[in-house]
Amino acid sequence: TLLGALSRLQTPPALVLLQGDAAITAQWQRALESRYRPEVLVFDLGGELDLPAMLTKGARPLVGAAAFVCRGMTCLPAIVTLDALADELSSTAGALRR
Fold first, then answer.
1. Diameter of the chain by CA atoms?
2. What is the pLDDT of residues 31-71, one digit of tens each?
3. Cys-Cys with 29: which of 44, 71, 89, 90 at CB 3.0–4.6 Å?
């Protein structure tokens, strides 16, 4: 447990913030968490209408969902498909292990 905590301090996990339609964001979260990714934390914000400024990374999509992948203090532009998000997280896993 302590080694895991040290690892997270040295290389913080990627954060995925899901926004948009609550049903779609819940589906995306289930799909992302069905695979073991200890270097990625997923937060479903689909049901939240009034988000704090720190969690607002872009305009809430009117239709569908969007994901924002953040590493440290930098977030990528919105990703609007689950396949593109999975691809980005696959490349994130490789980058975080190096």
1. 43
2. 999 998 888 999 998 877 776 666 666 667 778 899 999 98
3. 44
Scored b (16 or more CB within 10 A) or e, 43-67 reads: bbbbeeeeeeeeeebeeebeeebbb
Torsion of CA 80, 70, 55, 64, to 10 degrees: 10
> Which of 12, 9, 33, 13 lies closest to 82 in space, CA to CA?
33
Question: Which contacts qualify for 53-62: CB closer than 8 Å, 24 or more apart?
Answer: 55/17, 57/17, 57/19, 58/19, 60/19, 60/20, 61/19, 61/20, 61/21
Report the predicted TM-score, pTM, of the whole model to 2 decimal places. 0.79
Q: What is the DSSP letter of 47?
A: T
